[in-house]
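Hi V.,

You were right to ask for the full record rather than a summary. Here it is.
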Amino acid sequence: MEADYIVIGAGSAGCAMAYRLSEAGKSVLVVEHGGSDWGPFINMPAALSYPMGMKRYDWGYASEPEPHMGGRRMAVPRGKVIGGSSSINGMIYVRGHARDFDTWAEMGADGWGYADVLPYFKRAETWHGDAGDPAYRGDSGPLHITRGERKNPLFHAFAEAGAAAGYGATDDYNGYRQEGFGAFEMTVWQGKRWSAASAYLKPALKRPNCDLVNGLVEKIEIEEGRAVGVRLAGGKVLRARAEVVLAAGAINSPKILMMSGIGPGKHLAEHGIPVVADRAGVGQNLQDHLELYVQYAASKPVSIAPYWSLWGKALVGAQWLFTKTGLGATNNFESCGFIRSDRGVEYPDIQYHFLPIAIRYDGTTPPGGHGFQAHVGPMRSPSRGEITLRSADPVEAPRIQFNYMSTEQDWQDFRRAIRLTREIFQTDPIAQYVDYEIQPGEDAQSDEALDAVIREHAESAYHPCGTARMGRRDDRTAVVDPENRVIGVDGLRLADSSIFPLIPNGNLNAPSVMVGEKAADHILGRSLPSENLPAWTAPDWQHAQREGHVAAQAAE
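Predicted structure:
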């Protein structure tokens, strides 16, 4: 089989590129090892905890023992299904802060500043928000962005408490102002998960010039320094007349590059892989977000805990199955917050996901009945990890070492995030619903006690990125240039979260889709005009962490 373009990976970026390339009249083969996304576990938003960990949908990766996390092996779920991780994630839609992308440009990703990427965020989406400035949002894109109904009073109590604590409110954190508290957005449409497969791939596959090929990629075929195709397990070779585009994600993209002879020369030689392009940055610069569930028992019966019984789940499931409404039609993360951890921090570096039940991500609940929680963690950890090969066997999983919490700054930032969270939960109106603290627990007050809780209970937010970072071609640690071309090999592009120079401020699905949209234009030799819209920054950020705290902090 052959086509103009072969796209490896039907994830968030790969689906977007398949759609745009085929829309432009190019023939496209999309290679995906996973299968169909049919079934309630993926399509019912409230069932989000189920597809993670299911061998049918998830690669099932885990980190090496993390030396600063008590030797724990951390789960690294990655989507092995059409739609990739957008088919098994929490459906939360966060673009990131404008300063994230301006920082990318400052780090060598020329043409990827906020003014450059904003048009691609807008092109991707059809926004169904009821507040905010529509100048920042799209109204005709494939990706539907919605907000929950926020019927539970806890959603409003949390957002109002955050504003009352001095952090302000935002009517659209994906628009002019990220900082503050408000309504979360999600990739849910008409009561169903609206993944990249639903938005982009399935419409693309209806065109005669786009096809899906199921198979495990062993390597990219490279002849005389040019990528010419893809070899699948079993020996089948797909040929690309124009280019091969790698979009297998932050874990599998560097693995495939190294299996193809593109990566750190010494490491490849150790595994007997001939070096095609010695690129030291392949597999390096691994970043992620850690988060802790700060949990409280509720003083009033207001949480959604009753619906997590066997009978309650049956009722929720039946309502969703027949009407696509109710608690089954939402991810239940309907309020959020973005705050700055300290004075002198220019833009938010702590994110909150609020959930009106005390529950773990795997769906298990602690004892105690009614409760609620905020997932909280620092957004810009200085720690860096790596992806390396375990062997030259393409079936074997790579080694994943995040190196979480490897600097003193990590511990200082995380302790502060927990303490600031406690302050918010002591603020009305959310304070009226607090009975007692479940986690970290009221006895955990000292630095040492909080460190122990973090070490034992912090979890990945499942935002791996940065393992094949973008930069200028003369940067030895860069893997792709700002046109998404892999440096050192012709005819090969890379576009997914692995190219992020710096992890964005929030969840990664939205910026991954944006990368696919923008990379498609680079491939097609076109671009959208930049849009120089302003982004809100706290007017006294150098001196105040939040409103009303200038005098107190000045006296410290």
